[in-house]
Structures are given as structure tokens and as C-alpha cells.
Design a protein that fits this description.
The complex is a heterodimer of chains A (about 200) and B (about 300). By secondary structure, chain A is α+β, with helices and mostly antiparallel strands. Chain A has five helices and nine strands. In chain B, the strands form four sheets. Chain B has a four-stranded mixed sheet. A three-stranded antiparallel sheet of chain B has the order 1-5-6, with no helix packed on it. In chain B, strands 3-4 form a two-stranded antiparallel sheet. Classes of the chains: A alpha+beta (about 200), B alpha+beta (about 300). The interface between A and B is large, with 38 and 45 residues.
Chain lengths: ~200, ~300
Amino acid sequence: MTVQVSRRGLLRGVGSGLAGGTLGALGFGGLEPAMAAAVRPFKLAQMRETRNTCPYCSVSCGVILYSLGDRSKNARSAVMHVEGDPDHPVNRGTLCPKGSALLDFIQSETRTKYPLYRAAGAAEFKRVSWDFALDRIARLLKDDRDRNFVAKNGDLTVNRWTTTGFLGASATTNETAWITYKAVRSMGALVFDNQARV
Amino acid sequence: MADYSSLDIRQRSASTDQPPAIRSHMEVAKLIDVSKCIGCKACQSACEEWNDLRDDIGVNTGVYDNPHDLTPKTWTLMRFTEYENPETQNLEWLIRKDGCMHCTEPGCLKACPSPGAIVQYSNGIVDFIEENCIGCGYCVKGCPFNIPRLSEKDHKAYKCTLCSDRVAVGQAPACAKACPTGSIMFGTKQAMIEQAHDRVEDLQSRGFKNAGLYDPAGVSGTHVMYVLHHNDKPSLYAGLPNDPKISPLVAFWKGGAKVFGLAAMGFAAVAGFFHYVTAGPNEVAPEEEEEAVELDHEKRRNGGSEARPH
């Protein structure tokens, strides 16, 4: 449907609109209401804080995980923000670019949350139980150690096992690192890095 | 503790009535010590994380700048410059964190025609209130540092807020908190100037005799300041303006031209009104009407369907 506007009607409309706008611009219109600033609300106000350690490198920066949800039965908790822990002596609140982006690491759909197993020749990973995974790791370690353990170098007793390596986590504390060291070395493993230096 | 968390509004775009302020507050400032920056981009990461921005995956242009320019979703950006110092023959890697400077006299605010789309709080932070933004892009032209970016998605302008939401509760901006080398510092403007003077003295004692504080007077100072090793040549740092000024065009359109234009429009309206009262509307005499009808008929007879209804 087209609206029929005569030339005169158009001119009259435009003229009165212009006059009205001009009067408004000259300050005869209603005063602008004093508006409260639309500052974004502080998003951490209602969050739970959990101390943790950055999982990336051996510097092991302290982080605070900010999560929504009060942990009641039917409320799902979700990490919403990650920031450096100002009380942590290593980083005193600061973080590197990777640490600053930890939130996306946590929320990533491809993050490994449980043991996955790809059988020899299979194309896909399958979810398996921790029992299965640990049993299988122990089995493979034992088999490899039985095959390749070196007890003697000539007359000298060395008890070394160099065909399997072990990498400890970066987030371990002194105590867990000590236990890891003892457990791995007791098998004679030499290829070992505990990564954590804290 | 100094109260620098004020969100009282000091300036508001396209508004003549400024709310009066009875409280006095500390002005805040972010001090970026370029000589301590290692270019790790933690500030960029922290900024995107805090402000819930995730920029699109970009392209590599052959330099470390990533993304290669500010975008509506990247409010701060490390800019890398390789500079061969002719005096020392040293290759200097100058890294500058680019982003809004939060000018005391903001060109964007001055240029903005939309009431309340840009405000300046009394602590000095210049904030875009996207709700009031009409997406005209005048702020981009008004900014002496080329900072605001228009979003193609919602056609509104975006830039660094100096984390006004964090500052309002007494916290430092996300970039300043994350910075692992302490290159980004945050506090009252006074404290930051003092801090800068210590750093400048230190740099001068290490052979950077032109080291200085970048707090340009052309925009009456900024609330984001740099410590530069070559303060005599700020443009070395990826084109940081040597003497930033608001474009004279903005001053013209928002000053003289605006007053003149409003006066002309007002005069036209008043003159039109008086003309209507004294001369009255344009009347059509009955003879003229008859003549027009006759002409029309004639046309219809001659041209058939070519005649247009008027």
C-alpha cells in the first residue's frame, strides 16, 4: 500500500518537523534525564573462590578459580573466571598469556576429563575406567621393565631401567613430588622429570 | 585508601546539562613502562578473558602483532617495532601496549553526537555506553590515537573501558593485574607520575638520555601514560602520535559550525512562522484550478495512457 502524500502535505510535515527539532536543539525540549551510568556490574561479586595451581608449566603459578553455584545438590557449579592468586609467592597475582586464558582451557570441549583408550589398530579413543587404565599401565610398565631392566654393568650393580620415561605434573607440591620421585626411582627408572620446581 | 573508584560523571557526550559533582575524587591512571615490557601479551589475554571478548582467529601478517590491529573484540594490543638506533647501532625491539589513552580532553566524547554514549567519570575514565551509541563512527574520527572500533555485528563502537567495573570496586584493570613483569601499573594519577619519574631517572642513568613520561599536553594529559626510552620520538613506537591533538574539524563542527547552524535553523523556523502569519498559505485561484483541469483533459485526449495521475 502506498501512502498518498501531497506535495503541500510533505512540505508542511518536513517544515514542522524541522522547526520542532530546532526548538529542541535550542534547548526548549525536555531536559535530558540525568542517567545513571551503565557501568558493567562487577561480575565476581557472587562467586565462589577456589585456590588452584596453573597446570601449564613448571613455574606453577597460583590461580583463583571463580565459580558460580553454591554447591547445593541441584545447582551446577561452573567456573566463570580465572585470575592470578595475589597470595601465591610464585606469581603474586600475575599470570602469563596462557595462564590468563585458562578459562577457555577449562571450558574446552576437548579437555581430557577421564581415561581414554585407543587400542592398537583402532581409529577412535574410547572411554575406559580408571581401574582399566591403571591396570593396563602397570601391565605395560612391568612387561617393559622385565624385558629391558639392566641389573649389572660388567661387575657393577646399576639396577637401571632406561626404556620407559616418566613425567610428573607441574602442579605437584613438594610432598607429592617427593613421593613421585621415590616411587619412580624405586623401579630403577632414570628417565624422569618431575617438572614441578616448587 | 584513596578513593579512586568514583563513577560520578564529569563529561557526557552531546549534552549541555552536566550533573553537578559535590564529591572530589582521586584521578586514576595506568602507567605502562615500555622498557619493562617483554611483549608476552598476558594483558591481551587477560583483557579478552575479563571482558568476555573472544576475537576471531586472524591471519599472520609476518610480524608478532596478533591480531594486527585493534578490533571491536580486541581492546588492547601489543605493537612491535624493530628500531636500529643510529647512535648506538643497537637493534632495539620496542614493544608498546596500544589501547585507549583515556584523555582528559577526549576527542571521541567531543565528536560524539549521541547524548550519553560517551561519558567521562570524575576519576578520569572515558567509557562508551553502548546502549546510547548510534554507531555513527564520529568517535573514530575524533580520536587522536585511532582507538575506537565499530562492530559490524551491532554497529556500535567499542574500546578499552580501563575496566571501569573493576576500578569501581577498587581493583586494578585486568591487564595491570596480569602483567608478569609489572610493566603495567595502576594507581592514582599522582602516584603514577611519581613512579614514572623514578623509572625515567633509572633509564637515564642507564644511557637512555631521552627517556621520559608520555602524558601528552595536546589532550590535557591522559589517564594511560607511557614511560618511553625515546620520549623525544614517540612515533618510533608503532606510530604513537608525537603531539596528539583533537582534529580541528571536530572543534569546528562541534564549536562554531554547530552554533551557527542552530542559529540558522532557528532563524528559518521563526521567519517561516512570521511569513505564514503575515502572508498566509499559498492559495490557488479558482481560474488556475480550472485551467489545470482543462490542460489535464487535453493531455489525456492526446497522449492516452501516457498521462500520469498527479
